[in-house]
Each structure stands twice: as C-alpha cells, then as structure tokens.
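Weekly modeling sync, notes
Attendees: S.R. (lead), two postdocs, one rotation student

Agenda item 3: backlog of single-chain predictions. S.R. asked that every request posted to the team notebook include the full sequence so nobody has to chase files. The rotation student volunteered to paste the first one in as an example of the format we agreed on. Action items at the bottom.

Example entry:
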Amino acid sequence: MSKKNKEDQTSKKTIDSEKSELKDNISEIDQEIEISSEEVIKDLEEKVLRAQAEMQNVRRASQNEITKVRLYGSEILVKDFLPSIDNLFRTLDHQDKKNNAVPAEGISLILRELLAALEKNGVFVIDPKDEEFNPEEHEAISVAESADVKPNICLEVVQKGYKFKDRIIRPAMVVVTKK
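Predicted structure, as returned to the notebook:
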C-alpha cells in the first residue's frame, strides 16, 4: 500500500475513533441531562406539593380567624355598654318609690354613656335639626311651610338616625320646610 493510503486509513481510523468518542460523550451528556431534568422535575413537584399544603394551612388559619372575629368581634362593643347597663340598674335602685319615677339626671347620664360607647365603636348619631335636607342621611316624613326658615331645611327631627363609619344604619326621620 502506498503511504498516502496508509495515511488516509490512519486518519480515517482517527476520525472514526473521535466520532465514536464524541458519540459516547454525547450519550453521556444526554444521560446526565435526563438525570438532571428528572431531578428538577422531582424537585418542582415537591415544591408544588409543599406550596399546596402551605396554602391549605393558610386557608384553615384564616377561616379560624374569621370564625373568631364573628364570634367575639362585638365583645369590645358589649364591654363599652356595660357601664351604661350598670347605671340603669343604679337609676332604678334610686328611683322615687312612691311615685315610681326615674330621675332625669340618671337617664341623661346613661344616654351620654351609651352615645359615647357607640361613638367609640364607630357609630354616630345623625341629628340634622336646622340643617339642610340630605336624602342620603335623612328621610322626609312630612313637609311643613315656614316663613321664618328657608326651604329644604330639617325643621324637626322625629327620630334620630345612626351611621356606622360611612354606612347609614338608619336615616333620620325629619320634617322638611318648603316655600
């Protein structure tokens, strides 16, 4: 054989062995990629399961908190009313037994305490006497003519209204002036 043919065969063998080596390397890399992608998938699945469990725990805890708020949320309001209730009992104890009359001072004290307790908890009285009629807070139950007062003014408050923060619980019932 000629020298050139030998060289060609040698280089062909070298190329073939390099090809084989490259194929082996590629096969090894493919296996490593498969193993690492399987590990990544397992890791992600585990993280998803943990996140789902954490979400269930948060849901359960928040539901327990909501239940507690519903059950005990009014406790502060009740505590604020207790002094007024005590004063009602005291007023009844000190009433005029002969006439069966309750002292006006006691009643006004109790009303002040009740209103203070309500205001402390976000409930406010709507008493619009001599104010302009506001249909969002007032309910006109009657109309009266008045030469002294300009129109659309609450002349008389028949029943006071109440507002909880920004929400109207009960509108004030009023008599409104007209021309």
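Discussion: group reviewed the output briefly. The chain has three domains: 1-73, 77-121, 122-179.
Action items: rotation student to repeat for the remaining queue; S.R. to check formatting next week.
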